[in-house]
Amino acid sequence: MRVGTREFGGYMAQAVGARRAARRLPDVAAPGVADARQLPDEEFAGAWSAIVMPAGTKSRLLRTAVASAHLRAAVPFDALPLHGVLLLAGPPGVGKTTVARGLADRVSRTVVDTSPWLFIEVDPHGLASSSLGRSQRAVDQLFGTLLDEHASAGPMIVLLDEVETLFTDRTALSMEANPIDVHRAVDAALVGLDRLARRHPNVLIIATTNFKEAIDPALASRADWIFEVPLPDRTARRTILEHTAAAVAAAFPDAAGLLEPDVLDRAADLATGLDGRQLRKAVAAACAVRREAQGDPGRVSGEDLLTALGELGGRS
Ligand SMILES: Nc1ncnc2c1ncn2[C@@H]1O[C@H](COP(=O)(O)OP(=O)(O)OP(=O)(O)O)[C@@H](O)[C@H]1O
Ligand SMILES: [Mg+2]
């Protein structure tokens, strides 16, 4: 695999990509496949810009993934045992899944291969089964056949969302609830991951979890990089609230009171401890605070936002 790098900041049009053959997509009805698309992807580009993280975090993430692609393409696995696995861990609602999709898009624009990048999102719940042996077979089928086949056709990014479901810590399993089946499925997933990593240096796996302790240590040790995604700090909270309020005001111009700098400052203070999802939803909740506004977003006020945040229980 030959890889070349585009400028990080430069969104050069994919003129080369346009001439290259489109990638065959897997059947999204296949067990364990939640989404499949060719990259780059405009929706994912939007996801990347929507997520606000501490300064430098997103570019560090991108550099990490890009370095991995270059290293794995050129250095033998036995000398540098990189599995191409990047783990994003953190509390719910801090943007892990969203930034993972955005990262996939950015990697595809930065690392240019002879074939376009393919993106596959795995739905681990779609592999689970209560009947003995079935989830193991589904995992084998996914890693050993489906992912393997598509990786043979060109570079690929796999999103393993909520990875603790697939790589459950085997040592923490109780003897109830079919543990043998879970053991076998985890074993199969690890074998599949190892095989994928060795055979296909052009595969990058982005895994997310909000329950790092529940992940099998064998997966954690295969992760090349673990990023802890934090709750948004004050600056990030203010920016997320401002972006959300601006989107509402774009549709309902009379909601512009939400964008008063003083309101946003106080709101960011009031929202300490809230995650990104809660912050965005608080703007919607504000539209329903006052009875006389009758749920009309055009009649929402800055005070409504502060009330809604207070009700959400941010720690001021
Ligand atoms: N840091 C952030 N900046 C901007 N928006 C954010 C941020 N974190 C979360 N959001 C918003 O919250 C929503 C939920 O984010 P996402 O699903 O990516 O979180 P998650 O960390 O994967 O959560 P979970 O662990 O529950 O799956 C997104 O639509 C996004 O708009
Ligand atoms: Mg998520």
Automatic annotation (TrEMBL):
Family: Belongs to the AAA ATPase family.
Top-rank taxon: Bacteria
Taxon lineage: Bacteria, Bacillati, Actinomycetota, Actinomycetes, Micromonosporales
Keyword Chloroplast: no
Record organism: Phytohabitans houttuyneae
Domain AAA+ ATPase as annotated: residue spans: 82-233
One Pfam family, short name: AAA
Keyword annotations from UniProtKB, A to Z: ATP-binding, Nucleotide-binding
Gene Ontology cellular-component annotations: chromosome
Tagged with keyword Nucleotide-binding: yes
Gene3D superfamilies named in the record: P-loop containing nucleotide triphosphate hydrolases
MF terms (GO), sorted A to Z: ATP binding; ATP hydrolysis activity
Listed PANTHER family: PACHYTENE CHECKPOINT PROTEIN 2, PACHYTENE CHECKPOINT PROTEIN 2 HOMOLOG
Protein name per Swiss-Prot or TrEMBL: AAA+ ATPase domain-containing protein
InterPro entries, A to Z: AAA+_ATPase, ATPase_AAA_core, ATPase_AAA_CS, ClpA/B, P-loop_NTPase, Pch2-like
